[in-house]
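<instruction>
Derive structure tokens from the sequence
<entry> Chain with its tokenised backbone below:
===
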Amino acid sequence: MDVKIREAEDADRDLFWKATLDTAWGDIPDDEKVHISRMEFDQYFKRAAQPYLEDGQNKLFIAADEKGHILGYTLLGKSVPFYSPKPYGFVFDIFVTDDARRKGVARNLLEFAFGWFKTQGLEKVKLEVAESNERAKALYLKMGFRSERYVMGRRLR
């Protein structure tokens, strides 16, 4: 599939919000979902994620086919961890539409991200993936990502 990647326009934001809200909601562990409604979550997440979308250093890129139909997107930026002064590229979000999955779109978006991060002077890229997202984890492993940290949770009740 021929994939063209371009910087997002204002008109692309509706797709971003719908997809990222659905994905983020799906990634929440079930034992946490019981304490919040979907509407509460959407309102909270939009407020929390808006600064990442508006930050001039972060960029939203759109993947489209040769006819201009949107296939997916990625939100890229720079991050500096608490444990090191060395910044790295961070894939804040990556999404591929249902009908474009398993056709190389995510791979194209990640390859684009690698190149974009290099132009930003960064030497490493990281991302976060839900433990339950086996397909994405398999792709990331094929593309050279390795686990570096584990986030663990435990209910207190």
